Amino acid sequence: MQKLNLPEYSDVRICRDGDALKIFDRIRKKYVALTPEEWVRQNFVNHLIENLGYPESLIANERGIELNGTSRRCDTVVFDRYGLPAMIVEYKAPTVNITQDVFDQIVRYNLVLHARFLIVSNGMTHYCCEIDTTTGAYTFLPAIPDYETVKGS
């Protein structure tokens, strides 16, 4: 798989299932299809846990939500220590450009979850913004915040 703009992921577990490759998702505790987007997710989640101090128990992959009467799935939701959504992460394959449509998608998800941080990543480029939930204003951050910043007071 393609090298990403993330720290090396040393404990990658990949297996073959017939003609398909699968990667172990440490959050869902199962092997899932190894697509380019999934490669980004697994590397990004590993970075959150191993480098930024996020507890594995507060991360959910493929988290279902209801949006305008339709079922949707957020790629990753990170919760604060009170169990409230603190961060939503949307992934794209490394070859997919991050466009306004991607930001619109994650903002729609946030209409339901009300997370403080929104991240979009294709594994090469990562955008993170912090939302002021009282005013709706947002600020792009220079780096992904660590868990101490996100966990809640």
Describe this structure in words.
The chain has 153 residues and is an alpha+beta fold. The chain has a single domain, classed as tt1808, chain A. 22% of the residues lie in helices and 36% in strands. The chain has three helices and nine strands, in the order E-E-E-H-E-E-E-H-E-E-E-H. A six-stranded mixed beta sheet has the order 4-5-6-7-8-9, sandwiched between helices. The longest helix is centred in the first third of the chain and has 15 residues. The protein is globular, with a radius of gyration of 15 Å. The protein starts with 13 loop residues before the first strand and ends with a helix.
Q: What is the topology?
A:
Blueprint: E1 14-17, E2 20-25, E3 30-33, H1 36-50, E4 59-67, E5 70-79, E6 85-91, H2 100-113, E7 117-121, E8 126-131, E9 138-141, H3 147-150
Parallel strand pairs: 6-7
Antiparallel strand pairs: 1-2, 2-3, 4-5, 5-6, 7-8, 8-9
Number of helices: 3
Shape: globular
| CATH domain fold name | tt1808, chain A
- CATH C-level: Alpha Beta
User: Nearest-angstrom radius of gyration?
Assistant: 15 Å
CATH architectural group: Alpha-Beta Complex
Structural domain count: 1
Mean pLDDT: 92
Percent range of helical residues: 10-25%
Report the order of strands and helices: EEEHEEEHEEEH
N- and C-termini, Cα separation: 39 Å
State the major sheet. Answer: 6 strands, mixed
How do the strands of the widest beta sheet line up side by side? Answer: 4-5-6-7-8-9
List low-confidence stretches.
Answer: none
Question: What's the oligomerization state?
Answer: single chain
Total strands: the figure is: 9
What structural category do the secondary elements indicate?
alpha+beta
Strand share of the residues?
A: 35-45%
